[in-house]
Amino acid sequence: MAGAPAATALEVARDHPAYEGHFPGNPILPGVVILAEAMAAIAKATSIPVEQWVVSSTKFLEPVTPGMPLTLAHERLAGGGVRFEVRSPSGVVAAGVLASRPR
User: Fold this and answer.
1) Which domain holds residue 31?
2) Which of 4, 9, 13, 93 can pair with 62 through a Cys bridge, CB separation 3.0 to 4.6 Å?
3) Which residues pair with 70 in a beta bridge?
């Protein structure tokens, strides 16, 4: 992601309740939790509330297991949206674009 700011750590607790039912015996973090954590971090960094974003596109590329360190990189786009990537030590686990909610 060219021009992206320094990576920000995403802190997801090893014992996050979403792991319990997704999937027993082989827990992975649901994509909705990854997306929620990324959106919260972007909202904090940009001072734009989560409620003002819509998900334009997103892809979940690799599973996230308990304790896996995650980092977020994001950049503002010319049209006001935000492109983001969530990475683990092995590569990109999720990527997408947020757009400003129409008024």
Assistant:
1) 8-12+26-100
2) 93
3) 10
